[in-house]
Design a protein that fits this description.
It is built from 13 helices and 12 strands. The protein is of the alpha/beta class.
């Protein structure tokens, strides 16, 4: 394929992304790209004719490919995908969700039996809702985060139940609280036989998918937003240097796990990201850049799906 066609497809893919993923009309696309409405219409048609579009966008936009390669090199990552930026008025999560669901679909449709591990969180719950219907009884789909909060309620973004709406497979919830208040409580739950079996599956994982939660403000701290911790606990965590969390496991700006938090012992099991198996985080947004960078530097994950603006800030 010659270079002029690559650039033409680049613009066509960007226009298609706005039209099919972000649900923008042709006038909005034309204004955003600085082209005429007729040109926007032709680019969308070109995307269809060039087979860049089916259920999901197939083309990787050149600038996003370059950012992906730079992120891979800088943070020594296995998997990186970057969703194109469209407009400050558009929710960037939609682009991340599209790429993330495409990635997980690939794993679910693989014939080789795998232990697929899922965390929790807003983005991952949106991804779960978008997965293609599939029967994959060869796999084990496992949660590595507890399935209830301190009050006994299921957290709002618990993922396994959402995945089961579209996916027929074998599901293994992690039947413990998200965090325990003491070592004694932790030991009690971890000695429960079904929990031991789930932990074994987690440690023998083939791929793991998580989100990265920020801690920059009360508004963006997922643990506080979802009533898993209170104001006092949030301020205590901040005072101990917490900048982010994965599945309730808190870490500082260097990506080091923060353990000495009074009456807060996370029960989640995070797989070893130094293995050669993918642990992919779905995360984006200016309020999470510090948390994402810390998680990458601390080698808590070895893969990332994010948006174009966040990728640029990470670099």
């Amino acid at each position: 394929m010659n270079r002029s066609k690559i650039h033409k497809n680049d613009n066509a893919a960007r226009a298609a992304w706005m039209y099919y993923i972000y649900k923008m009309n042709q006038d909005e696309i034309a204004k955003t790209m600085g082209i005429s409405r007729q040109r926007a219409q032709r680019l969308i048609s070109l995307a269809v004719n060039e087979n860049l579009v089916n259920f999901k966008i197939n083309h990787s936009i050149v600038s996003c490919q370059e950012l992906s390669l730079e992120l891979k090199k800088k943070f020594n990552l296995m998997n990186v995908d970057v969703a194109p930026n469209v407009s400050n008025k558009i929710d960037k999560l939609d682009g991340i969700v599209n790429l993330a669901s495409k990635t997980i679909d690939t794993f679910l449709m693989a014939k080789k039996p795998m232990n697929l591990i899922f965390g929790s969180g807003l983005i991952l719950s949106k991804v779960a809702d978008k997965l293609s219907p599939v029967t994959c009884l060869q796999h084990k789909i496992v949660s590595n985060i507890g399935n209830h909060g301190p009050d006994g309620l299921e957290p709002p973004y618990f993922v396994l139940g959402r995945i089961s709406q579209n996916v027929e497979s074998n599901f293994f919830p992690f039947t413990v609280p998200i965090y325990s208040s003491s070592k004694e409580v932790q030991k009690f739950f971890l000695n429960y036989l079904p929990v031991k079996k789930t932990i074994k599956l987690i440690k023998n994982f083939d791929a793991c998918f998580v989100t990265i939660g920020g801690f920059a403000s009360k508004k963006t701290a997922g643990l506080l937003r979802d009533s898993l911790i209170d104001d006092d606990k949030y301020h205590l965590m901040k005072s101990k240097g917490v900048v982010g969390q994965i599945n309730g496991v808190c870490f500082d700006e260097n990506g080091k796990i923060v353990k000495n938090i009074d009456n807060y012992i996370p029960m989640s099991i995070l797989p070893d990201a130094n293995s050669k198996k993918p642990i992919i985080a779905f995360a984006g947004g200016s309020d999470r850049v510090l948390a994402i960078k810390a998680a990458l530097n601390g080698r808590l994950v070895n893969g990332l799906i994010t948006d174009e603006v966040t990728a640029e800030k990470l670099l």
